[in-house]
Design brief:
Length: 270
């Protein structure tokens, strides 16, 4: 599958300074097929929904996801269901969830309740793992999904978090295909911050990601382990990229072009 035939989305983190409607515009001008939207439920209004839906309709893009449903200690936050509702209103296929609740049982309970709501509005709730959360590894995420066992649940793989947490392409290949609804993709140096450097882990995730093919992560192996037609969201949070391309649309174009060159190269080598 070439870089042109696979659905390619731009994660909201590529243009963190943009409002949701402007994020859609940047992704469209950059040549992406889909876009991820950052949802702040406290400031998201009905007018925001109307503007986003209008931009999506005008550009022909789809919403690959909304984020972030951040599960925290304590009772289930009603704002999380609102994020799912907003996602449904703009036609998003997925919502991204992470957990910072150290109580595994509570995380499972809240994730299960959110999956029930997500399913009722037609969204998959993709659980992301990583050292920056309390669900640190792909196996920990699999345990939660297997326990919840809900059709709206899914597993979100980000190569950066996979490798930094000690995971591998073989771990990805062991996951049943139906548990994937999309994946995030980026590159980074082969060696990076370790588990005992939480500040470094967070800094790399927020500011030091690389274009596909510019780093040392085993992206080809991970891509081959994922379902062949799985949509990808390019999660390229990068201060150097933001500095090099201050214009969001130009940044999006550079990211889309680099991503498709890499994916086309992978397809030729397959």
């Amino acid at each position: 599958m070439s870089g042109r035939s696979r659905l390619l989305g731009m994660a909201s983190g590529v243009v963190p300074e943009c409002s949701p409607p402007d994020t859609v515009e940047a992704a469209a001008r950059g040549g992406f097929d889909a876009v991820g939207l950052w949802v702040e439920p406290d400031i998201w209004t009905d007018e925001t929904t109307r503007q986003v839906r209008r931009r999506l309709a005008d550009t022909g893009l789809t919403a690959i996801d909304v984020e972030v449903v951040w599960i925290k200690p304590g009772p289930l936050d009603p704002a999380h269901k609102r994020i799912l509702d907003i996602g449904a209103e703009v036609g998003a296929r997925n919502a991204l969830a992470v957990s910072s609740d150290p109580d595994l049982g509570a995380t499972i309970e809240k994730y299960a309740a959110l999956c029930e709501h997500a399913g009722s509005v037609g969204i998959r709730l993709a659980l992301e793992f990583g050292l920056f959360t309390e669900v640190k590894t792909i196996n920990a995420a699999r345990h939660i999904l297997d326990t919840v066992n809900h059709p709206a649940s899914s597993l979100l793989v980000d190569p950066l978090h996979l490798i930094r947490s000690g995971g591998s392409a073989a771990d990805v290949g062991a996951v049943p295909a139906h548990l994937f609804s999309y994946a995030q993709f980026c590159d980074a140096p082969g060696n990076g911050p370790t588990a005992d450097d939480p500040e470094g882990i967070l800094r790399e995730a927020l500011d030091e990601r690389l274009q596909l093919g510019d780093g040392g992560l085993p992206l080809r192996d991970i891509l081959a382990a994922l379902p062949a037609d799985l949509p990808l969201s390019i999660e390229l949070r990068s201060k150097p990229l933001r500095d090099a391309y201050p214009d969001p649309a130009e940044r999006a174009r550079a990211t889309a072009d680099a991503s498709r060159r890499f994916l086309d190269a992978c397809a030729r080598e397959a």
